[in-house]
Write a structure and sequence with these properties.
single chain, 99 residues, mainly alpha, two-stranded parallel sheet, 3 helices, 2 strands, elongated
Length: 99
């Protein structure tokens, strides 16, 4: 038995409490909506918020976050939407320049 007050380090988390990241659902919703309608604005927002939340999750090894997957999925959707928006802008500029 470890001494009283001792908490072993677990690189995968789980050493302490389990909770949800407060912005996890918001990031996922922004990422999904950015893929559907407003990729120019919501995509980068989901990407940045997801990256910040992922950094916060990784910086606290004593807490296990139950919605890490939601944060990561929203971040990836934001990345894809942003890249699609950039491709769309390049195509529009290319079409306009060829006329």
């Amino acid at each position: 038995m470890p001494p009283a007050g001792y908490t072993s380090f677990n690189p995968y988390g789980g050493g302490g409490t389990t909770r949800e990241h407060p912005r996890g659902t918001v990031i996922l919703v922004l990422g999904i909506i950015s893929l559907l309608i407003c990729s120019f604005v919501l995509g980068p927002i989901a990407w940045v918020m997801g990256s910040q939340a992922k950094r916060e999750i990784d910086s606290d090894p004593t807490t296990t976050y139950s919605n890490r997957g939601n944060v990561n999925a929203g971040r990836i959707c934001g990345m894809i939407a942003t890249l699609l928006a950039i491709v769309e802008i390049v195509v529009i500029i290319g079409i306009a320049a060829s006329k």
